[in-house]
Amino acid sequence: MWVWVWYGSGVDATGEIAAALAAKFQVLLPHLDERQRRLLLGAEARSIGHGGIRLVARAAGVREGTVSAGVSELDSGQAPLGRVRRSGGGRKKLTELDAGLVAALMALVEPDMRGDPMSPLRWTTKSTRALAVELTRQGHRISAPAVGDLLHRAGFSLQGNAKVLEGKQHPDRDAQFRYLNEQVKEHQGAGQPVVSMDSKKNELVGQFRNGGREWQRSGCPVEVDCHDFPGDALGRALPYGIYDLAANTGWVNVGTDHDTAGFAVESLRRWWNMVGRVVYPHTTRLLITADAGGSHGYRTRAWKTGLAAFAAQSGLDITVCHFPPGTSKWNRIEHRLFSAITLNWRGRPLTSYEVIVASLGRGDHRRDHHQHRPARARRT
Q: CA–CA separation, 86 vs 159, rounded Å?
């Protein structure tokens, strides 16, 4: 058995404590009465523990009995000193001095529910400064910080818009999603591929500003054109993505002309010839999830005709499940592939098609604890 023994006198540590206490007492004790001094010295002695009474007495320049009396008073449980200011003293709250202040403030921030619908601030930014100016004009003198305090107490906070309204709610909306989910589970359970398809936002090719930030030397940002005029662009890039739900892989076909139904079918055909038939060599079925509009919409006959031709060519039984109108954000490709593309080329101008294709395959981030595999891209 090992026994560790430490040798030391502790003089240095004790001296440092005594010096700190002496500095504290020199500043604080002159402002206290006799009882407050005893209580303070007693509290310091209790916090130090063994030897604290003697150490505190020497630091404060008082008798050890005075410190002991303070410790005894703390241990006796006597009533606190109480308030120095009488009850009800001090400056009154604004709400007590002005009974109509809160009602006037609520009429400004909630004009549709309280007060006049044509409130002076109905169509302006409701900042605390603007609210304070308007309340003062109405005879309620208040500052902008005080307005913020009242709003917080009333349950308000700074908030942006929430994109939750999806238009008209069809009574069969829940059943539609349940059917789509069951189709995905059935295909995946049978080992059949399920892909999510969509086209990303068109991008101008040139020295144009791109959102996001990346590390650069201070004062040396990447310089881009002041205006994003389409006439100055070298062309347009139309990324069309195909995301494999089971394999968690993405494939992107970059077009240079228009986002048409033929382009969508050709993108699917190239994904199948390059990736799909290799990953799923024995498959006989393919399930596609897509939104309800665009080049692959449920009303686009060219999409259906091209898809039928591809099915006959590949020998696959193809099923397409369209998301209800206004719910394309639930399509997995939006969150798994397109968000990754945006992160890949953030903060850099898309100066050429080569830059776009190279940026698509960087894949240097993680999503949902899974390594996101780089998207394969082709320019057509």
A: 41
pLDDT at 370: 34
Please choose, from the candidates 139, 136, 142, 147, the residue with its C-alpha nearest in 3D space to the C-alpha of residue 109. 147
Residues 138 and 195 both lie in one domain: no
Any domain includes 114: yes
pLDDT value, residue 119? 55
183 and 297 belong to one structural domain: yes
Q: Which domain holds residue 102?
A: 95-153
**Integer Cα distance of 53 and 43 in angstroms:** 10
CB-based contact 210:346 (threshold 8 Å)? yes
Return left, alpha or beta for 350; rule: phi > 0 is left, psi -120 to 50 is alpha, else beta. Answer: beta
Distance separating alpha carbons of residues 132 and 121, to the nearest angstrom:
11
Three-state secondary-structure class, residue 324: coil
88: in domain: no
What are the residues whose beta carbons fall under 8 Å from the beta carbon of 292, sequence distance 6 or more?
298, 322, 323, 324, 325, 328
3 by Cβ neighbours in 10 Å (0-12 / 13-18 / 19+) ranks as exposed
Task: Quote the number of domains for the chain.
Answer: 3
**Cα(165)–Cα(281) distance, integer angstroms:** 43
Cα separation, 248 vs 336, in Å, equals 8
Alpha-carbon torsion (56, 60, 64, 66), positive or negative: negative
Closest CA to 223 of 210, 234, 238: 210
What residue ranges of the chain have pLDDT lower than 70?
1-13, 79-90, 111-125, 165-169, 361-380
300 in the same domain as 204: yes
19 lies in a domain?
yes
Whether residue 44 contacts residue 56, with contact meaning beta carbons closer than 8 Å, is answered with yes
Query: Is 195 found in the same domain as 137?
Result: no
Mean residue pLDDT of the chain comes to 81
